[in-house]
Predict the structure.
Amino acid sequence: MKLRTITQLSVDAVMQAPGTNLAEGDDDMSDRRGWAHFDDEAGSAMNEFFERAGAFLFGRRTFDHFASTWGAWDDPGDSPIWTALHTLPKYVVSASRASPLWAGTTVISGDVETAVRDLKAEPGRELQVHGSGALFRWLLDRDLIDEMTLFTFPVVVGQGTRLFPATGPDASLELVASRITTSGVMIQSYRFIGARPPA
């Protein structure tokens, strides 16, 4: 499976608290959360990505958030996101969680890199990582990301966790898809093609 990360970003690269539904204890941006406003085009694009998924890989905090929201909601009957999250395998990277509460979930602990490489080696559709900033940076350090999709919203948040670390590996990217919605949401997908060549 190809590993694709999908991240909602502000123009100043903040990824923290794009929505208003936060898990218990996660609200350390109470005055700045909820900045990702999806128009119909961005919503349709996100649905399309979920329809490409074959499985999901989460960091623990993002998994807890998804489980307490999407995992707790009744089937609306017309949501590709809900359907994918409730019918496809879910994997959560956690050293502390023994048994997840959301059906269809497997906890990955111990040799996480081998487990992720084994998942990538399986046939099927995409292994998708939504949010999960710490996991994204860990995957990036180990060159495990095949494609990265960014939903960049036309807003400056001013504070919060950013997607990329202050220091880390450099990389060259190939733009494979790009579109801008009528309200200015940029949706761009990049393929990682190796280390950035020297200047």
About this structure: Residues 23-27 have pLDDT under 50 and may be disordered. The two ends are 33 Å apart (CA to CA). Residues 1 and 120 are 5 Å apart (CA to CA).
